Structure formats: structure tokens, C-alpha cells
Amino acid sequence: MDDQKQIQEFEARIERGEKIEPKDWMPERYRRQLIRMISQHAHSEVVGMLPEGNLITRAPSLKRKLVLLAKVQDEAGHGLYLYCAAETLGVDRSELIGQLLAGKAKYSSIFNYPTLTWADIGVIGWLVDGAAIVNQTMLAKASYGPYSRAMIRICKEENFHKRQGYEIVATMAKGTPEQKRMVQDAVNRWWQPSLMMFGPHDTDSPNSAELMRWQVKTKSNDELRQRFVNLTVPQAQAVGLTLPDPDLRYNDETGNWEFGEIDWEEFWAVVRGNGPMNKERMQARREAHQEGRWVREAAEAYARKRHQPKAG
Ligand code: BYC
């Protein structure tokens, strides 16, 4: 079969809603796009442990500490599912991790902002995990089987993450004036970066058209961002918090909450490595990788021993 015919059959399968599995034929470009996107996603989960990990020793109670520990461990698990999904496309995870540590791979812009107080933990769960759920619920329907299945599992855990965050936010919002001030300050700092998680406007998104044709993405960056805003405004109102946007208003005709322009200069600066915490995050990842070396070596030695044929 020539390439053109194979592409037509491949696209017809996607059109019928069939999942593409690792051993199926796929265009090289589809494989490359998936490796790019899944590996960036895996890196985001792993780097995403750092901002919250920073507050584990300062959790206000044992219960809060246990919940946060469980959440951060879940993020590590998400990274592992996603590196596994990327490996089904014929790439080795050590190569992908090498790219991250060399500063050549992207990961979500959101994790390059600092966590200053306990309120940030609530707001990250509410807004950052909330944004991730909107994006990942769409990706759970992606045409590539291993990615979509990883997303189904991850979304279940993200729902728990979002609820724990919103519960912290709601508790602080009805707490002392100082707690209320802290949580409002965290919302003020995390709102815009959360909107940036969805990526550039559709008109400035070079990958969207191809990813949507192949149903890796089934909704555009702007559509998902709007959905997130529509879901989040009533949640903010319910706990008496203000979203920091003077242009936020409800449009009766479209049923959407309109919002002000995003600071794209800041977004691209962060994506290019010049955000408030990019250097610290990479430094922490490199140190953790180095410190974990003996664990990887021991695991590899154990696996080799188990697979050695028994003497005699
Ligand atoms: N940050 O053509 P576009 C989590 C890049 S972790 C950095 O629209 P695409 C959690 C983009 O990569 C959740 N870079 O791209 C964990 C592209 O550059 P390249 C993380 C960004 O792929 C711990 C260029 O800009 N979620 O939930 O069509 C604790 C042009 O963009 C960003 C995922 O990774 C950004 N925000 O759409 C708590 C979801 N946005 O690669 C929570 C999976 C764009 O061409 N990924 N760029 O050099 C996706 O859904 C899509 O890749 C995106 C971007 C919507 C992010």
C-alpha cells in the first residue's frame, strides 16, 4: 500500500472513532506529535510535584499533610503512566528525561510560579487541577489508545485533587480576615497563569489544526479556556472570592463569561525559560535525578538478575 492510501485508511479509522494502538500503522508525523505532547505532559506532572512539595513540611495539620503527600505522589504516578504511554511509540523514557534535564523539553508554564503560602496549595488544587481536568477530559477521548486510557485514570485522580483544593479554599475564605486575605492573594497570583495553561490563542497555535484533524485534541485551546472560565466563575462566587479581571462579564447571548486579554508576553517568556521559577525547577529536578541514581541502578541490577537464565 502506498503512503497516501495508508493515510486515507488511517484517517478513516479515526473518523469511525476507532482507537489507534501501538502496533497499528500511523503516519510518522502522528507519532512525532504524540511523543511531543505526551512527553511534555509527563514532564509537567513530574515538575508539577515541586511547587506543592515545597509546602509539605509546612502543612497546617497532620491531616492536611497526609492529603498533600498523597496528591504529590499521585502526580509522580501520572508521570509514570505518561512516560509508559510515550514508550509505546518507540521512544525510551531515559531519552525523554535527558531532554528535560538538558533544558530542551517543554513542560507546562504553570509550574514556573512560586508557592508562597498554604493558600497556594488550595488554589493550585482548585484552579490548576481544575484547568487540567477540563483539558484532560477532552484528551481522554484522544484517538491514540494508550494516551486516552492513561487520561481516564488520571482524570479520576485529578477530580480528587480539585476537590481537596477547593475545600481548602472554601475553608480559608470563611476563616479569619488574614486567611481570607491570603486566599484572595493566591487567587490573584494564580488566575492568569491558569488561563495560560491552555496554550496560545487558536490563531497562534501551530499544532492545533493537525492535532484536531487526527482527533488527538477534539477541542481547541480557546474553547477549553472558555469552558474553564465558565465553570470557575460560579465557584469563585460561591465562596466569596474575586477573580482578578475587571473585564469579566457574563454575556447573555452566548452564555459565556467574557474575560480580559491574557499577558502573552509573560506566557512566552515563561515558556522560553525566563519565568520566576524556571531555573529553580530545573535545578531541583537535576538534583533529584542525581540523588535517585542509586535507586535506578539497584532496580536495573535486580531486573537483570531476575531475567538471567538459572545455572545448571
Ligand atoms: N506551557 O500549538 P500549541 C497537571 C507550547 S500537569 C508550556 O497550541 P498544542 C498537574 C506548545 O508545547 C498538566 N508550553 O500546542 C501536575 C507548543 O510548543 P512546541 C499538563 C506550552 O500541543 C501537577 C507551542 O507552545 N497538561 O495537571 O497544540 C500538579 C504552541 O502551542 C503551553 C498537559 O500537558 C503551556 N501552557 O497545545 C498539578 C496537557 N501551551 O511543542 C497539576 C497535554 C502551549 O511546538 N498537552 N505550549 O515547541 C496539551 O493539551 C497541549 O499540548 C497544550 C498545547 C494545550 C498544552
Arithmetic mean of pLDDT: 96
Which parts are unreliable, with pLDDT below 50 for 5 consecutive residues or more? none
N-C termini distance: 49 Å
Compute the number of strand runs.
2
Strand order of the largest sheet: 1-2
Give a list of the ligands.
benzoyl coenzyme A
What's the order of the H and E elements? HHHHHHHHHHEEHHH
What's the alpha carbon Rg, rounded to whole Å?
21 Å
The multimeric state of the shown protein is single chain
Instruction: Estimate percent helicity.
Output: 55-70%
Give the overall shape: globular
Task: Note the topology.
Blueprint (H helix, E strand, L loop, with lengths): L2 H13 L12 H20 L1 H5 L8 H26 L5 H9 L16 H22 L5 H29 L3 H20 L11 H6 L7 H18 L10 E3 L4 E3 L5 H11 L3 H14 L1 H15 L5
Antiparallel strand pairs: 1-2
The structure holds benzoyl coenzyme A (BYC).
